[in-house]
Design the sequence.
């Protein structure tokens, strides 16, 4: 997920309106806004890449990042209600943004539960301490 967000965000930063289906002719204000939010999306993707490399996986961070993704879907739904149907690709993205966060919430909970059960139990693995 992190890599996809970084690539999509960089596409917005580098290509501006040309990266958005049907919006190549949007004005300078929309181009500026799109490039700004593209940079924010790069940061969001980098946050995912940082989180998934942590051991144990920080379930709270996963929940927050999933919640932000779901908030993006809410914004798209508000736009749908206010302005009508967007380009088909935006509809596909909305569906993804509505489906993926609940899965991530569930996985974060399952991982947190597994970590809690493993602490001090028979399955616990003691990790070596490295002192520098």
Sequence:
């Amino acid at each position: 997920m992190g890599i996809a967000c970084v690539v999509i965000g960089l596409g917005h930063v580098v290509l501006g309106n040309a990266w958005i289906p049907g919006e190549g002719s949007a004005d300078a204000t929309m181009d500026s806004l799109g490039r700004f939010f593209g940079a924010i999306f790069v940061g969001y993707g980098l946050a995912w890449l940082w989180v998934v490399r942590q051991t144990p996986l920080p379930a709270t961070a996963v929940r927050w990042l999933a919640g932000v993704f779901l908030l993006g879907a809410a914004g798209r739904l508000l736009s749908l209600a206010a302005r009508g149907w967007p380009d088909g690709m935006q509809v596909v993205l909305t569906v993804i943004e509505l489906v993926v966060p609940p899965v991530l919430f569930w996985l974060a909970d399952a991982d947190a539960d597994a970590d809690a059960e493993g602490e001090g139990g028979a399955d616990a693995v003691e990790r070596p301490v490295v002192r520098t």
